[in-house]
Amino acid sequence: MSLRFRQLQAFHAIVETGTVTGAANQLGISQPGISNLLAQLERHTRLKLFERSKGRLIPTPEAGVLYQEIDTVVRGLDHVAQAVTDLQNKQAGQLQVASPHSLSFGMMPKLIAEFSADKPDMSIAFQSNYSTKVQEWVLAGLFEVGICELPLLYDSFETEMFQFETLCALPEDSPLAQYDVLTPEILEDEPFIVMGPEHMTHRRTREAFHNAGKRWRPRVHSHLFKNNLSFVKEGMGVTILDPFVVKFDREGGFITRPFRPAVTIEMAIITSKARPLSAIGQEFRKILSAELAAYRI
C-alpha cells in the first residue's frame, strides 16, 4: 500500500474542520484537490472514511482509528514546517554567546534581551568567563560568537577588533573630584585597586606612572572590574575601569574622570573559521558590533 503524506494531511484536515471547504482553506489547496486526495486514500486503504450528513462529513469508526494513528505524525510534520519557516525568518534556533565578565553584568543581558524580544522560540546559551576561556569555548564549538580581550591565542578565528578608553573611578566624596582630568602627577601615592599583573590595564597604568617618574601604589589586587569598583565604593582607593562596567552600574557611589595618558583596552568579536555561522549568529554579531562600536575610540 502506497500512502502519501498529502493524502493523510487532507484526511486529517477534513476530520479537524468537518468539511471539504474547511480542509481546503486550512491547507491552502482547492476543494477538488481535497476531494481527490480523500478519494485516493479511500481507494488505497479500501476503507470508507466518511458519511455525509447535512453538508458535513462524519468520520466512520475506521476513520476515528486512522485519525488517532496519524494525528501525531501530521502535527509533528506541521511543527517541522513551522520550524523551517521560523529559521528562515530568524525566529527560532539557538543563540550561543560568550563574553568577558565585565560585559556580563549589564551590557550583554540587555543586548540579548532586546535581540530576542521578537524571537520567542529562540533558545539562548550565554556564559561569561576570562578571555582565554572564551577563546577556548569558541574554538571548541561550544559557543558561536565570543567577545574577548586581546591577545588572541589562536589564529583560527574570524575577528573584528575594538579599542576602548578606560576611565578612572574614585569615591564620590573624594577630594580628587576637583580635577577634570587625572594624571600620574595628581595620583602619585594614591591607593589603587588594580587587576592582576598580567592584565593590560595593570601593565599600562604602571608604565604611565613609570614614564612620568611618579610612584604608583597598588593596594588591592582583584580579578574583575566589577570587584574593583566595589572597593572604590568602599573608599579603599581609585581604579581604572573599562567603559562597560561604568555604563551599566546602577548603584552609584562613585564618579569617573579621564586618565591621561590614556590607558586603552582592546577586545575582539571572534567566531570560528572552521564552522559556518548560523543565521541567528550572523544577525547577532552585526548587532553586537554596532553596540561595541559606540564605545570605541
From TrEMBL:
SUPFAM superfamilies: Periplasmic binding protein-like II (SSF53850), Winged helix' DNA-binding domain (SSF46785). One of its GO terms (molecular function) is sequence-specific DNA binding. GO terms for biological process: positive regulation of gene expression. Belongs to the LysR transcriptional regulatory family. InterPro entries: LysR_HTH_N, LysR_subst-bd, WH-like_DNA-bd_sf, WH_DNA-bd_sf. It comes from the Bacteria. It comes from Halocynthiibacter styelae. It holds the Pfam family HTH_1. The keyword DNA-binding applies. Residues 3-60 form the HTH lysR-type domain. Keywords: DNA-binding, Transcription, Transcription regulation. This is LysR family transcriptional regulator.
